[in-house]
Amino acid sequence: MAGSDRRPAVGVVLASLLLLAVGGGVGLLPAAEGLGVNWGTLASHPLPPRAVVQMLQDNGIKKVKLFDADAGTMEELAGSGVEVMVAIPNNLLDLLTDYAAARDWVHANVSSYSFDGGVDIKYVAVGNEPFLSSFNGTFLNVTFPALQNIQRALDDAGHGDAIKATVPLNADVYNSPKDNPVPSAGRFRSDIADLMMEIVQFMNQTGAPFTVNIYPFLSLYDNDDFPLDFAFFDGNGSPVVDNGIRYTNVFDANFDTLVSALSSAGVGSLPIVVGEVGWPTDGHKHARADYAERFYAGLLRKLAANAGTPLRPNQYVEVYLFSLVDEDAKSVAPGNFERHWGILRYDGQPKPDELSV
Ligand SMILES: *[C@@H]1O[C@H](CO)[C@@H](O)[C@H](O)[C@H]1NC(C)=O
Ligand SMILES: *[C@@H]1O[C@H](CO)[C@@H](O)[C@H](O)[C@H]1NC(C)=O
Ligand SMILES: *[C@@H]1O[C@H](CO)[C@@H](O)[C@H](O)[C@H]1NC(C)=O
Ligand SMILES: *[C@@H]1O[C@H](CO)[C@@H](O)[C@H](O)[C@H]1NC(C)=O
Fold first, then answer.
1. Closest ligand, as measured to the CA of 87
2. d(CA 193, CA 173)
3. Which domains, ranges and CATH numbers included, belong to the chain?
4. Residue from 33, 75, 76, 129 carrying the catalytic annotation
5. DSSP notation for 93-133
6. How many CB atoms within 10 Å of residue 335?
7. What pLDDT, on a 0 to 100 scale, did the predictor assign at position 346?
């Protein structure tokens, strides 16, 4: 191929899209506040925290979501101006059903960074997708008590107004019936409906947002008949029509299925944070750099315009892209794409265009 035909490296394209979204002028600034990234560290050679924090700052990214509260990471985030969601891994949830343990966790991992010039912690993620069907119910009995204890410990330590405990949940905690697969019919999964009702009522009391991970790529991966164009944001293909609302992309349809589930649980205006959304660049026929570009371009355009969704129109949506960098030590049990979610390679460099083949 002639040099002039070469596509720019996806990392560069995405980096410039990020700049466009966060720094592109007054009109786009509200999107800047919404845009965050996930920082995972399941890598054989994790990038030094200092380099990652520098990268966030250089790209104007003001929010980051972690999967732990690693001391080295937290120390670098101190004074950075980056807002942080720290996290409690699933294997600690059982321990945190004891209030004294939750108090100790908050003391060690939150209070110790809460000083002038410290870490700007906004959320504590209690577990990571603990109700995934593939966990076989392992965390069903411990997640809600841990959530309650962590929020109470935050309150008791005087952080409760500024820091909210939430639970990042996979979109498989809600669905609409097979015979009426439209967003307005959204309900929480029947096996956990009572539990979800308690959790969202609690969040409504504490002022915490519902955190959900939405993956249009997985809709395609899971279903060979899924219409490709519906995974993206360019409005092609045949829409899903629901009470006169035309859904032209699965992200909106999925988000509004959650809005309907929340409404049916009596908390229709509970704030929603999208904890993870992204597109992998390798490891499956649909995991391609050009699709990732198409997906992110549409998503970032939508966010910059504060378009919201049909059930929550013209709203700012707080979103954390998944993910900042590839993680070459992730389990490939869900699929070979798992190590390729990064906007950047595992070494922090832009992805070469060869990946888009
Ligand atoms: C958080 O606090 C607990 C103390 O309860 C400690 O054992 C743990 O290592 C700390 N860090 C993380 C990342 O959880
Ligand atoms: C869940 O159950 C399946 C089938 O019994 C098993 O293969 C899988 O390892 C279990 N997963 C966990 C996390 O326990
Ligand atoms: C959760 O609690 C229920 C009811 O007490 C019990 O039947 C179930 O075995 C528990 N599940 C786990 C994974 O501990
Ligand atoms: C809880 O939900 C009710 C009904 O939607 C709402 O009026 C109230 O403001 C919510 N509470 C909080 C803390 O947001």
1. 1
2. 9
3. 3-214+252-339 (3.20.20.80)
4. 129
5. TTGGGSHHHHHHHHHHHTGGG-STTS-EEEEEEESSSTT-G
6. 17
7. 86
**318 in Cβ contact with 34 (< 8 Å):** yes
Q: Which residue has 């371009």 as its token pair?
A: 297
Active-site annotation holds for 318 = no
Mean pLDDT is lowest, of 97-111, 247-261, 320-334, for 320-334
Instruction: Return the residue whose CA atom lies nearest to atom 5 of ligand 2.
Output: 136
**What pLDDT does 55 receive?**
87
**121: nearest Cα among 89, 170, 73:** 73
Distance from residue 96's CA to the centre of ligand 1 (Å): 11
Segment 51-56 shows an average pLDDT of 91
* More confidently predicted of 171 and 354: 171
- Ligand 4 residue neighbourhood (C-beta within 6 Å): 204, 207, 267, 269
The C-alpha angle with vertex 196 and arms to 137 and 139, in degrees rounded to 5, equals 25
Residue with CA nearest ligand 2 atom 13: 135
Can you tell me the distance from the alpha carbon of 357 to that of 166, in angstroms, rounded to the nearest whole number? 39
| pTM of the model as a whole | 0.91
Cα(219)–Cα(284) distance, integer angstroms: 13
Angle between helices 99-109 and 143-156 (to 10 degrees): 60
Mean pLDDT of the chain: 89
Nearest 5 degrees, angle CA 319-CA 322-CA 323?
Answer: 130
Of the residues 132, 135, 136, 141, which should be mutated to test ligand 3's pocket, given the most ligand atoms within 8 Å of the CB?
141
Average pLDDT over residues 114-142: 96
Exposed, middle or buried by CB within 10 Å (0-12, 13-18, 19+), for 225?
exposed
**Cα–Cα dist 220/43, whole Å:** 26
Q: Write the pLDDT tens digit of every residue in 62-96.
A: 999 999 999 999 999 999 999 999 999 999 999 99
**Cα–Cα distance between 85 and 65 in angstroms, integer?**
5
Share of the chain above pLDDT 70, in %: 89
Query: Residue 129 catalytic?
Result: yes
State which of 18-32, 67-81, 333-347 shows the largest mean pLDDT: 67-81
